[in-house]
């Protein structure tokens, strides 16, 4: 079974940011299922880790068990959706805190959909001027289609067009999660290491970097 991580950074509960994440995840689930595979969705709400994030950023030795579990879940996923509310013309501070806490190799080559919510369509360029560069810096494989949803779009023709973008973005992500749309389960190529770059959750000791004592003595 494939795995999909959804990182959202809404502050309220429920939030429009989480709701958009759920909507995109449902579309990805449908697209992957139509390609003959199943997928398990894991939601990572940044607000749930706010205290541990603050501790980790000012004290590298701080104990952050909940955040550590989230990092492991994220790095093990086959695909990623990130959704941030827009504050002061960019992604939220909480959203950035979460990604600042990650190992720089935690989402290497991970197929990713970027999405954002805001009160006005004036902020739509944040997708390409803030979210896309951040994910690219972390070596994620960002899908061509991003999703932006403004409060003023609900119940309008633009709202319908957003649904179309969600469907298109979900299809793009599903094509990477399931490499061949016509394959049967178990025969798809694994894209998680398609450039040879391993992922590191940053939690504990990465066995790939461990050098046996016997090698050190030679």
TrEMBL record:
The protein's matches in Pfam families, at most eight in alphabetical order, are given as: FMN_red
Q: Which UniProt keywords apply?
A: Flavoprotein, FMN, Oxidoreductase
* Flavoprotein as UniProt keyword: yes
Q: Entry's InterPro entries?
A: CE1759_FMN_reduct, Flavoprotein-like_sf, FMN_Rdtase-like_dom, NAD(P)H-dep_FMN_reductase
Any keyword Flavoprotein?
A: yes
- GO terms, molecular function: oxidoreductase activity
NADPH-dependent FMN reductase-like domain: residues covered: 5-152
Superkingdom classification of source? Bacteria
Under the heading PANTHER family, the entry gives: FMN REDUCTASE (NADPH)
Entry protein name: Oxidoreductase
Q: Which organism is it from?
A: Corynebacterium stationis
What does the record give as the organism's lineage? Bacteria, Bacillati, Actinomycetota, Actinomycetes, Mycobacteriales
């Amino acid at each position: 079974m494939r795995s999909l991580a959804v990182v959202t950074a809404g502050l309220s509960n429920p939030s429009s940011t989480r709701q958009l994440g759920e909507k995109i995840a449902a579309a990805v689930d449908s697209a992957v299922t139509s390609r003959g595979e199943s997928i398990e969705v894991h939601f990572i709400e940044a607000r749930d880790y706010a205290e541990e994030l603050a501790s980790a950023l000012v004290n590298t030795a701080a104990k952050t068990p909940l955040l550590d579990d989230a990092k492991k879940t994220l790095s093990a996923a086959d695909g990623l959706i990130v959704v941030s509310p827009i504050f002061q013309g960019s992604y939220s501070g909480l959203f950035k805190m979460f990604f600042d806490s990650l190992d720089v190799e935690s989402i290497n080559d991970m197929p990713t959909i970027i999405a954002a919510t805001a009160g006005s369509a004036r902020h739509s360029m944040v997708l390409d001027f803030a979210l896309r560069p951040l994910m690219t810096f972390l070596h994620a494989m960002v899908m061509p289609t991003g999703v932006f949803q403004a409060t003023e779009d609900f119940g309008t023709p633009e709202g319908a067009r957003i649904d179309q973008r969600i469907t298109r973005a979900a299809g793009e992500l599903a094509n990477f999660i399931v490499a061949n749309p016509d394959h049967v389960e178990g025969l798809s190529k694994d894209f998680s290491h398609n450039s040879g770059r391993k992922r590191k959750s940053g939690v504990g000791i990465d066995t790939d970097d461990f050098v046996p004592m016997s090698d050190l003595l030679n």
